[in-house]
Design a protein that fits this description.
mainly alpha, 28 helices, about 0% strand, DNA-binding
Length: about 700
């Protein structure tokens, strides 16, 4: 836009200068200056005045063009199409002038038709026409832009005036609001002293803050200096060599254990298969014996053959009553036969020999837990930061799992005389790594290595024994299992707090196995009353043995309840022990037992299985709902004893035992009723039951 304005101004100046030159020439002609002789002009066919004016005009035009070229050369912009067009016009004028200088008007060839134009001239005309249109459009846009700029400038000037007026008014108002007091307050020494004291305190605070910053900076400098000295003393090449050697060692260790894991799994599976087969043989033998004897006694009870009755009478005479022996304890556990036991020991020895040969071709550096942990301990001592950043304590349990399982192949958690897992070599090595010298300075992750190994390696192995080998009717196996679980929970917190995935799976396996034992291994036969009243009959003795077997299962469920407490939920134990076992099977025999000392003895054996924790929070005086049938039948038995024996001295000890049982299950209302009706308040008072 600026170039176009400059061009327009230049053209206006040129026209004005040309008009002035023309006027000056006319004045010179009128005054007779620069006259040319007429004799010279006449041969040319020109008048004197015309020749003088033309020559002077050419000179003026040439001078103006020269001046215009010089002005264009001095400008610091590139001329656009308009200037180019002007230059072309000037070139044409120069050419016309040159042609005028050489020929006269009558000598020129008159063109009666327009001359044909070349292709270049046509393209130039087309471009020139479009450029003219663009120039006209640009001029219109330029005019609109100029109008808009003038409007904006006008608005800005108005706003500036208004703001200056507002500012002047505001300053006047502000000046009006300021009130300068006529008199200033008096300055005393106390005021000066307070100000100086306040300033001094502020400076002291600043000084203390600066001193604290200085001490902190000095401490940082000391730490930086110590780090610098440590870095200068230690070589990066040495650290790099250590990491490289550790990487190579771990890779070789992983490859070795990966190869040996296949063999360990095979040997471990053979050992488990051997124990599972033995457990199935004992279980099937017990179930088959119970089924066979039950079928035989059922035939004897409902057979009309007199010969069978005679046989039964002979058996009565030959077999004495063993009720007293049965009341003294539960039946013994099933044991394998001598031949089976010898075969089992032989196969076990062969499997253990195969297990010893697994790492016979491996160096101790890759098979000894102690030496493996020594490598990681060296890393922990030399470069603790990288050791903890690599979370090595969480990798060690999985890394050592094959070696630990190899040492646990001969371990049986269900045998009391077996070797304990804490006596194996791997345990001492891990314990020394986690709780050795200076363990107080270790992080929590290192101290949790041993519990993680127990949780991820020991517990799954025990779970396999529970699912496939454990017999809940075996007192020895149940006692060993519950003691082991209690120790794992107390020492390693395997089941405490938020129960882990392995802990939850283990307790689910225990619950399923107990439920199967109640559903499949408890059997109480039913016989006519005449056989049950005769304590010497085979039916009575068989039913009595089955009763004590059920009590044995109940004892396995509840006798060690303090060990299962917190592991198996109480509602699950109550469902299995009370709803399914006691009320479905055991109460059936207790209801059919004649009232007497024998029945009270059975009540005592059953009640001894109930854990005290079930009755600690009982607020009522009538026991828990699941034991109402048990307590009511015990009360009825006591009433029958008191009515059948008017002499209270002979049944006094029996009544005392009943009071103890009722007090144990918190059935205190029943104790008060019996004591008041039969005058046994002294017994209840001596037991503090009222």
């Amino acid at each position: 836009m600026f170039n176009k304005k400059a061009k327009r101004n230049f053209r206006q100046r040129k026209e004005e200068s040309s008009d002035e030159d023309d006027g000056k020439k006319d004045r010179e002609v009128e005054n007779g200056e620069n006259e040319t002789p007429v004799s010279v002009l006449r041969p040319l066919g020109l008048s004197k005045s015309r020749g003088i004016s033309c020559s002077s005009r050419r000179k003026k035009i040439r001078a103006a063009r020269k001046q215009r070229r010089q002005a264009r050369a001095r400008q610091d912009f590139i001329p656009l199409d308009g200037d180019q067009h002007g230059m072309e016009e000037e070139a044409e004028e120069d050419h016309s002038e040159d042609s005028d200088d050489g020929t006269d008007d009558h000598q020129r060839t008159i063109q009666f038709a327009p001359k044909l134009k070349t292709i270049k001239e046509r393209i130039a005309e087309t471009i020139g026409g479009s450029e003219d249109e663009d120039d006209s459009a640009d001029s219109e846009e330029e005019n609109d832009r100029n109008v808009w700029e003038e409007q904006q400038i006008g608005k800005g000037i108005k706003r500036h005036k208004l703001s200056s007026c507002d500012y002047s008014q505001g300053s006047v108002k502000h000046k009006k609001k300021v009130d300068i007091p006529e008199t200033l307050p008096a300055v005393t020494i106390d005021v000066i002293k307070r100000r100086i004291t306040g300033k001094l305190e502020s400076l002291r605070e600043v000084h203390r803050a600066r001193e604290a910053d200085l001490r902190r900076m000095q401490l940082d400098m000391e730490c930086a200096q110590a780090s610098l000295e440590q870095l200068q003393s230690s070589s990066s090449d040495e650290q790099h060599r250590f990491y490289k050697a550790m990487r190579s060692y771990v890779q070789n260790l992983v490859e070795c254990l990966t190869e040996k894991t296949v063999v360990i799994n095979s040997v471990e599976m053979d050992m488990h298969t051997l124990l599972i087969d033995q457990a199935e043989v004992l279980l099937n033998r017990r179930r088959e014996a119970v089924h066979k004897e039950s079928s035989h006694l059922q035939q004897l009870a409902y057979s009309a053959d007199p010969s069978s009755n005679g046989t039964e009478e002979k058996q009565k005479e030959s077999q004495p009553c063993n009720l007293e022996a049965a009341c003294k304890g539960v039946p013994a556990d099933s044991e394998p036969l001598p031949d089976e036991k010898a075969e089992l020991e032989c196969k076990t020895a062969d499997i253990l020999k195969r297990a010893q040969d697994i790492f016979s071709d491996v160096q101790d550096e890759f098979s000894s837990v102690k030496k493996i942990l020594a490598k990681f301990n060296e890393w922990r001592v030399l470069y603790p930061e990288s050791y903890y950043n690599a979370y090595i304590s969480f990798c060690i349990p999985k890394l050592l799992s094959p070696i630990i399982r190899h040492q646990l192949i001969g371990w049986n958690p269900l045998k009391a005389d077996g070797e304990d897992f804490e006596a194996l070599p791997w345990y001492y090595a891990v314990e020394d790594f986690c709780h050795g010298q200076g363990y107080e300075e270790l992080e929590n992750t290192d101290r949790e290595t041993l519990p993680l190994i127990v949780q991820k390696t020991i517990l799954p192995k025990v779970q396999g024994f529970v699912e496939l080998v454990w017999d809940p009717l075996s007192s020895e196996q149940s006692l060993c299992l519950t003691k082991l679980c209690r120790r794992l929970n107390n020492d390693y917190m395997v089941f405490g707090g938020e129960q882990s995935k392995q802990g939850k799976a283990f307790m689910d396996a225990v619950t399923v196995r107990l439920r199967n034992a109640v559903d499949e291994d408890v059997f109480i036969p039913l016989y006519p009353k005449k056989f049950l009243e005769d304590t010497s009959s085979q039916q009575f003795q068989f039913q009595d043995r089955q009763f004590w077997s059920a009590v044995k299962v109940l004892h396995a469920l509840l006798g060690n309840i303090t060990l299962w407490d917190g592991l198996v939920p109480d509602n699950v134990l109550m469902e299995l022990a009370l709803d399914k076992l006691l009320n479905r099977y055991v109460m059936m025999i207790l209801l059919n037992t004649p009232p007497g000392k024998e029945s009270v003895e059975k009540f005592k054996k059953v009640a001894a299985c109930f854990p005290k924790s079930w009755f600690q929070d009982v607020d009522t005086r009538s026991s828990i709902p699941q034991l109402r049938n048990f307590s009511s039948h015990l009360v009825q038995t006591t009433h029958s004893l008191c009515k059948n024996n008017p002499d209270a001295t002979c049944i006094r000890e029996t009544v005392k035992d009943v009071f103890v049982l009722l007090g144990r299950i918190k059935a205190l209302n029943s104790v008060a009723t019996i004591a008041e009706k039969y005058h046994y308040e002294d017994i209840s008072n001596s037991l503090n039951l009222l």
